[in-house]
Design a protein that fits this description.
Blueprint (H helix, E strand, L loop, with lengths): L1 H13 L4 E8 L2 H8 L1 H18 L5 E5 L3 E7 L3 H17 L2 E2 L6 E2 L3 E8 L6 H17 L5 E3 L12
Parallel strand pairs: 6-7
Antiparallel strand pairs: 1-3, 1-6, 2-3, 4-5
Helix pairs in contact: 2-3, 3-4
């Protein structure tokens, strides 16, 4: 994940292009694993990853970030484009019908997502990751199954003369 974000960030900076970062966390995934087991949880992760890939472009770079978090680096994508993709992914995840391993019907999950972009919400790679992560956790605190945008960078004051 770090390598992907570093490479995309450096490319964006070099060519003066935006790069978006979407972070996704499956809501209540630990509880889901406790109830349904880790094998069923692995099925959920694969299905959600498939949704990410199906909604991403070829140049986008999905990666696993932490235990149940997924992320996508989005070259040449501003904050609005990153948010729009995140929202499409959120809706698609909520619509998933994941077959139960015991054959007893289907399971549903939801996800919370955070969207950030360089240079709109971050000055550097670590700031981009932190901004997307903060937006993700705002989405979780606001009730889950939501997408939140990172806030803009504070305006810089003109240098003193």
């Amino acid at each position: 994940f770090q390598e992907v974000v570093s490479a995309e960030f450096e490319r964006a900076r070099r060519y003066d292009q935006p790069v978006g970062l979407l972070m996704l966390d499956i809501d209540d995934f630990k509880r889901f694993n406790d109830i349904h087991g880790h094998q069923q949880g692995d099925v959920v992760l694969r299905e959600v990853a498939h949704v990410l890939r199906a909604n991403s472009r070829e140049i986008d770079e999905p990666a696993r970030y932490g235990g149940e978090e997924l992320a996508v680096a989005l070259p040449q994508t501003d904050l609005e484009g990153t948010y729009n993709l995140a929202e499409r992914v959120r809706v698609a995840v909520a619509a998933l019908e994941i077959p139960r391993l015991d054959g007893e019907g289907v399971l549903r999950v939801t996800a919370s997502l955070g969207a950030a972009a360089f240079p709109e919400t971050a000055e550097d790679k670590n700031g981009l990751i932190a901004a997307a992560d903060a937006a993700l956790y705002r989405a979780k605190r606001a009730g889950k199954n939501r997408t939140e945008r990172a806030g803009p960078l504070p305006a810089r004051s003109a240098p003193a003369k």
